[in-house]
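Bumping my old thread because nobody answered last time. Still need a sequence for this structure:
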């Protein structure tokens, strides 16, 4: 019988905040109505939709008509990438070799269709340097696509500096901000053309996300149909999910930046404890990291064995991105950083949320250290 239940896989998904659940239930039980309908029920739904859109836009300090709702982070990035490259397949795109699969695999597919893609090496640092971006620019470069935060290592990309480079060279800059929103406060640089977000990474439900798009961006509709979402993404809006995501975003005013400091302190406490009790330990990614993420290598221990053993003891961690964590191969991201296959296989990702407690971290530290000692013996 498992006596503990400690969830430390918040980069895969987060628990639903009470405020999000309340908003979801309230919208789900509201008067029936499609926001596209002209009768009173539809117009009431349209008004609520606008209110939710305003909430998110206000938090991001952008105009409401620059927020487009989607089904989540993967769709958001596909919408932006395909939408920008439609009829521009011979363009040149700059990205890195440590991006989330929704960027990496999408651009790999487009590369096969004729798009020229430069996958820059992030190295052991864990993120590309702005100088690498500047040196990679060609006359045909039309787009830069990068994550603000690496979802496996937590290493942050210097979005501000790269945005300046993109703006100076008149290049579209698309940012995956799924692992950023909800972790720390930020502003969108003027050189960023679009950003993608996901609800279930900030205590909203799965199946809802949004993108910020500057009005001047020439985006071909990825999903066509009824011309909803300013003719940029068709389909009846998921009003309940949107309401819940708006509520989750509104909560950030109260929780940030204090939650950032709390998560960073707990993450650092966990790492210090494991370095003391379970050496040798290697922290993957030498760059500056987001507050909640720790990717640790325990040489001599198979990561998969460690994850299973910890699960048996009530602690949930992961290999890396939930989209790829079922794969038997070592993490593509870690291998592309230059980490050997054996060390990549010995690595796990631990990711906190603002709801993670000090008691959970103290218990998890002891359980992880004991489990590693058992597996090494």
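Sorry it took so long. Here it is:
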């Amino acid at each position: 019988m498992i006596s503990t239940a400690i969830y430390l896989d918040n980069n895969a998904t987060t628990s639903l905040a009470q405020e999000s659940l309340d908003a979801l239930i309230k919208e789900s039980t509201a008067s029936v109505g499609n926001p596209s309908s002209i009768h009173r029920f539809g117009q009431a739904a349209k008004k609520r939709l606008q209110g939710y859109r305003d909430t998110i836009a206000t938090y991001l300090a952008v105009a409401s008509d620059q927020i487009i709702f989607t089904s989540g982070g993967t769709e958001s990035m596909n919408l932006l990438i395909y939408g920008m490259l439609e009829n521009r397949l011979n363009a040149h795109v700059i990205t890195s070799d440590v991006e989330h699969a929704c960027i990496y695999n999408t651009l790999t597919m487009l590369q096969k269709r004729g798009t020229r893609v430069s996958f820059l090496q992030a190295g052991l640092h864990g993120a590309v340097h702005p100088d690498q971006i500047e040196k990679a620019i060609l006359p045909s470069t039309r787009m830069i696509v990068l994550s603000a935060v690496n979802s496996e290592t937590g290493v942050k990309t210097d979005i501000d500096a790269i945005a300046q480079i993109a703006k100076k060279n008149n290049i579209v800059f698309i940012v995956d901000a799924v692992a950023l929103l909800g972790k720390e406060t930020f502003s969108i640089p003027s050189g960023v053309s679009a950003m993608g977000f996901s609800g279930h990474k900030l205590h909203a439900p799965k199946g809802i996300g949004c993108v910020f798009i500057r009005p001047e961006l020439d985006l071909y509709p990825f999903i066509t149909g009824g011309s909803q979402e300013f003719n940029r993404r068709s389909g009846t809006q998921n009003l309940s999910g949107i309401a819940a995501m708006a509520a989750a975003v509104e909560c950030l005013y109260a929780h940030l930046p204090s939650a950032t400091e709390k998560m960073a302190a707990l993450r650092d406490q966990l790492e210090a404890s494991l370095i003391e009790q379970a050496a040798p330990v290697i922290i993957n990614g030498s760059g500056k990291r987001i507050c909640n993420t720790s990717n640790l290598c325990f040489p001599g221990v198979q990561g998969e064995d460690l994850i299973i053993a910890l699960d048996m003891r009530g602690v949930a961690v992961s290999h890396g991105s939930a989209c790829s964590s079922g794969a038997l191969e070592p993490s593509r991201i870690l291998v592309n950083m230059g980490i050997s296959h054996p060390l990549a296989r010995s690595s796990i990702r631990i990711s906190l949320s603002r709801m993670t407690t000090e008691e959970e971290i103290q218990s998890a530290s002891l359980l992880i250290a004991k489990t590693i000692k058992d597996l090494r013996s």
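The chain has 13 helices and twelve strands. Let me know if any region looks off to you.
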